[in-house]
Design a protein that fits this description.
Blueprint lengths: L1 H5 L6 H5 L5 E2 L13 H7 L2 H4 L8 H8 L2 E2 L4 E4 L2 E3 L3 H8 L16 H12 L8 E2 L2 E2 L1 H7 L21 E2 L3 H11 L34 H9 L23 H4 L10 E4 L2 E4 L15
Parallel strand pairs: 1-7
Antiparallel strand pairs: 2-3, 3-4, 5-6, 8-9
Length: 286
């Protein structure tokens, strides 16, 4: 799941990189949306994730996790067992629905294709200086915000590069997952009454500024010395999270969270390897 969500450039990227030091791109969100789009966000299931504030990346911890990722099994390998980001984590951390039609589409491979698609969607096309390879710069989209007319169709496009040597994408999911499962590695969380759970660490640097200077070597040592009991296998049980915080639209899909299904993100396809990480759902090893 990590490859499909945070490794740009192909399904075997993490295995190819090995222990190479990776850089994290974590873009701050643009200006808040106009309130008239709230109904569309709720209808499409993106409302809760749109409310997540800035969760600053800790690149050293991400690198330490990547070193323990095994593309053959799509799991992290620790001394206490195998684990992975699951559909339950996606629902609880980001507030995204886990049931419905897949969201995917073509990857634009040329400026001409981007130009044509933008003309079709927005009625205006970017200049070449507004693009970088198969990417359109966020500044161009921000400049459109006052001119875009909302319609009923929501199209989500994503471009990937096969030669990418960086990690980006929903790092908030990976970071929050690690801080929940390995709380001794986490900065001090904020308001625990917020949903989605990622907002517990919104603007964590204000109270934990020194934490950002923790080195990769420190994380390697801590993960090498990981003991049973330090990893939280079931972080969403009674006593860990107030059930009243979880919206019904999220909770009623819990039967799907243990399904073994393919996870598709354009050309990246991985299995939701729930059969390998059942300790994240039950009390004893299986």
């Amino acid at each position: 799941m990590v490859e499909a969500m945070v490794a740009r450039g192909g399904g075997s990227a993490l295995g190819q990189w090995g222990s190479r030091m990776l850089m994290c791109e974590h873009y701050k969100p643009p200006d808040r949306y106009n309130e008239i789009v709230e109904s569309q966000l709720r209808e499409t299931g993106f409302y809760y994730v749109s409310q997540i504030g800035v969760v600053q990346c800790q690149s050293a911890m991400v690198n330490a996790l990547v070193e323990r990722w095994r593309p053959e099994t799509h799991t992290f390998h620790f001394s206490v067992g195998e684990c992975a980001v699951t559909l339950e984590d996606v629902a609880m951390i980001l507030g995204l629905p886990t049931n419905g039609l897949p969201v995917t589409g073509p990857t634009m491979s040329s400026f001409e294709a981007l130009e044509a698609e933008c003309l079709h969607q927005f009625g205006v096309a970017p200049r070449k200086t507004d693009c970088r390879g198969s990417f359109i710069k966020l500044t161009w989209f921000r400049g459109l915000k006052d001119r875009i007319v909302l319609n009923d169709d929501v199209h989500i496009q994503m471009a990937t590069r096969v030669d990418c040597k960086k990690i980006d994408g929903p790092l908030t999911l990976l970071l929050t997952w690690a801080w929940i499962q390995l709380p001794f590695l986490a900065p001090i969380p904020g308001n625990s009454r917020l949903f989605s759970i990622a907002n517990r660490w919104r603007d964590w640097e204000r109270e934990n500024y020194g934490y950002r200077y923790t080195l990769l070597e420190n994380y390697r040592r801590l993960l090498d010395d990981l003991q049973e009991g330090q990893f939280v296998w079931q972080p969403y049980g009674i006593g860990d999270i107030d059930p009243d915080l979880i919206p019904l639209a999220i909770h009623h899909n819990l039967v799907l969270w243990s399904a073994r299904v393919p996870l598709i993100s354009f050309e990246c396809i991985e299995w939701h390897a729930i059969d390998r990480v059942m300790r994240q759902f039950v009390d004893q090893p299986v």
